[in-house]
Batch of 2 targets.
Target 1
Amino acid sequence: DIVMTQSPDSLAVSLGERATINCKSSQSVLYSSNNKNYLAWYQQKPGQPPKLLIYWASTRESGVPDRFSGSGSGTDFTLTISSLQAEDVAVYYCHQYYNTPLTFGGGTKVEIK
Amino acid sequence: DVQLVESGGGLVQPGGSLRLSCAASGFTFSSSWMHWVRQAPGKGLVWVSRMDTDGTTTTYADSVKGRFTISRDNAKNTLYLQMNSLTAEDTAVYYCVRAGGGNFDWGQGTLVTVSS
């Protein structure tokens, strides 16, 4: 199984400041035949299902604000919120879909400082 | 718009069974791989099972293998999860998830509580 390790577990950032979340996979999720990283990022607020933010490691889902960006390749990935807004308070998860079992990071709780 | 509506959750005693359903609309259900993912209260996301477009290929997490069965009815645009021999560790919100082209669509989830 591919283990997804997120850091930090929680993060307090001032409004308007940058938030950075890291995700490391125990093996590469880069598929060489199409050069795509099978890595997604989700945002989850209490009582709601996960909301897809980023897929293929860096492709923003339609409707997602451009302050959210994803980067990285292979085993190391980053989700960046360039200017934190109050509505961004949530738990964020990385997710690999390179193979089954699909696996998720443990989550990073983002709060306002 | 893609819509996935889960139903069938509820309170069940340990050792009991439950069948979840996921009604799909807004996309070509018969062309989509489908998954179940669960989330225990206050915990993270855990993949449960997946099925290919015509039901030929199914895969399960080790924790549910032999107890849960995923199935689909493409004529009814519905995905199912039959859950048997339930234990307290199966208590969770169960999400129906559509996989398509690298992105994923999630339902609102249905809560399953296993308790005496």
Target 2
Amino acid sequence: EDKVVQSPLSLVVHEGDTVTLNCSYEVTNFRSLLWYKQEKKAPTFLFMLTSSGIEKKSGRLSSILDKKELFSILNITATQTGDSAVYLCAVWGEINAGNMLTFGGGTRLMVKP
Amino acid sequence: DAGVTQSPTHLIKTRGQQVTLRCSPKSGHDTVSWYQQALGQGPQFIFQYYEEEERQRGNFPDRFSGHQFPNYSSELNVNALLLGDSALYLCASSFGTGNYGYTFGSGTRLTVV
């Protein structure tokens, strides 16, 4: 059974701090790993990582995948209160010729002013 | 360009009742996937519909059923509601059975009392 584990469960930091969120996975026929930000309801897409060792960046956020060790990290530098959210990691596998996203439990980030 | 639309946004039901949730996919998308997100957890895959058929199913009992219409919209039905069915139900649409353009709706918050 596909499995995704995120750590830490929750994190409280102050504005300006740098945070690192972790995601480890076990999945059959891995295709890609995705990071989402969920503030209230709809998860919003951040990154999709397919190749190992290639960093993806978007402003203060960056992410990298290690396919050998089966994990990914999401870094947020110079955090702002608007970064407060649940960050979800998900992996695409392929089961029985179909496909589905398997999510981790999320990391709840709170950024204090 | 309308995104993924879900209705209703909130509803409250009594144990034992039945509920129907609705999802209209993003324009150009023909595949709908449903997820259940319990409080404090990551989303869990329920099932996926493509060409009006259930293509893949997660570990959910038969009380959870669905339907896809010729216009690609979809319904999720839950019978004999349990307190544990209280959750945010997310719909995601995409093109084909791959992950192209995978987009989440804002969800329906179901409370079972």
